[in-house]
Amino acid sequence: MTIPSLTLSPKGCTRARAGHPWIFRSDILSAPPELTSGSEVRACDQRGNFVGRGFWAVKSPIALRILTRKDEPLDDALLRARLIAARDLRKALFPKVDAVRLVNGESDLMPGWFVDRYGDVACVQHLSEGMEARRETLARMLVEECGVRAVVFRDDGSSRDYEGLVRHKGLLHGELSGPVGYHEGEISLSVDLLADHKTGGYLDQRENHLLAGELARGECVDTFSYHGGFALQMARKADHVIAIDQDADAVRRTRENAEKNGLKNVEARAANAVEALRALDKEGKKFDMVVIDPPAFAKRKEGLEGALRAYKEVNYRGLRLLKPGGLLVTCSCSGKVTTALFAEVIEWAAQEAKRPVQLLERRGAGRDHAPLVGVPETEYLKTWFLRAP
Ligand code: SAH
Fold first, then answer.
1. In the 3-class helix/strand/coil scheme, how is 364-379 assigned residue by residue?
2. pLDDT digits (tens, 9 = 90+) for 274-309
């Protein structure tokens, strides 16, 4: 089968040759008319030299996602080999873990395909037309290579709008009724993959949850707590943990999770976290550890300034609540808030709180969410462990 070829602009060629998989439509000089959504295409420079092969998108501003810089077919065998490689990396990194990000899109050279595994169920997201067009095949491969009994698709997030894909969710394979159980360290958790947020849990924070658990003591507060990922780990060592989330369902799940683990010292509250932090301050409360893990305040470049102010405000609030020597675990999952900007936010908050602040460790997403070097869009999470002497 001959694969149609298109021509990239010099800028597009430079980007592709540097290893960035995304080629925007403005960098396509000419494309053959027969290309359809998700079809395989060869990309060449203006002289006709081969640059890479990828999948075409009709609606997305990212017209082409490159999967290989070799002139090799993008067939099922290649996709299967990449899935196996991704699976084996997780097995090597986390041999005993029953919930991981199995495939991390661009980072695992499968642009737009994200797979989380919870026990024997896979939860997938398709964020490119190329992967959308192959979703049935990919689901079958997951069953065959990873032994999952069900494949849920959670294509109901806002990132689908950007790609021009409809929002929906459901099952691609098998059956599923009710929540699925999994573990983070000693804590057992459950998630309803068809009803809860995004692909279920926040697996990117798993290793940070565990570290927070090791460091916890005394009185703790976990804001933007969702199902209690941080709160439950901290409760194993702390005297008392307040978990705050505005979503009543998340709060209910936190309570259920606490009960399931025999943790009687978790107090889950449904409230606006910013207001709750302010109220705790007014009451004169002080804590040994505070966690701040807000949703992405900045999703786009527009509104970045407002988002930075919001991050500063919550961090300022968090720092004010710390006892001498208290720890602040502070996060931002906005890709637009770079490490440098986040450092500025923390400095600003520390100045306002008039407290010295030590940076114990800069962490990010777990190694199953490893970013791809040269592709800054694959790096988004900052989870920093701070201490206020
Ligand atoms: N810390 C969690 C993940 C948090 S996701 C973990 O590690 O597992 C962000 C959470 O913030 C969501 O559960 C959402 O319901 C909650 N949220 C968003 N805005 C909020 C607000 N203003 N006040 C309290 N919770 C909020």
1. CCCHHHCCCCCCHHHC
2. 999 999 999 999 999 999 999 988 777 778 999 999
Task: Tell me where in the chain the CATH 2.30.130.10 domain(s) lie.
Answer: 5-68
Kindly report the three-state secondary structure assignment for every residue of 94-105. Answer: CCCCCEEEEEEH
d(CA 318, CA 14): 44
pLDDT of residue 129: 98
Mean of the pLDDT values across residues 145-162? 96
Nearest protein CA to atom 8 of ligand 1, as residue: 229
Tell me whether residue 33 is exposed, middle or buried, using C-beta atoms within 10 angstroms of its C-beta: 0 to 12, 13 to 18, 19 or more: exposed
How far is the centre of ligand 1, averaged over its atoms, from the C-alpha of 211 (Å)?
19
Owner of token pair 């997030």: 157
Mean pLDDT, residues 172-192 taken together: 95
Report how far apart the first and last C-alpha atoms of the chain are (Å, whole number): 67
Instruction: Assess if CATH 2.30.130.10 describes domain 5-68.
Output: yes
Torsion sign, CA atoms 323, 327, 331, 337: positive
Q: Which of 339, 330, 338 is nearest to 301 (CA)?
A: 338
The one-letter amino acid at 241: V
For the domain made up of 202-388, give the CATH fold: Rossmann fold (3.40.50)
| 185 Ramachandran zone, left/alpha/beta (phi>0; psi -120 to 50) | left
- Comparing CA positions, the residue from 11, 15, 125, 5 lying closest to residue 54 is 5
Q: What is the DSSP-derived secondary structure letter of residue 124?
A: E
Beta bridge partners of 123: 116, 152
All CATH 3.30.750.80 domain ranges of the chain, comma separated, are 76-180
CATH architecture of 76-180: 2-Layer Sandwich (3.30)
Which residues have C-beta atoms less than 6 Å from ligand 1? 202, 205, 224-226, 229-230, 245-247, 250, 272-274, 293, 295
Give catalytic status of residue 333 as yes or no.
yes
Given 13, 123, 220, 333, the catalytic residue: 333
Query: Is the CB of residue 192 less than 8 Å from the CB of residue 252?
Result: no
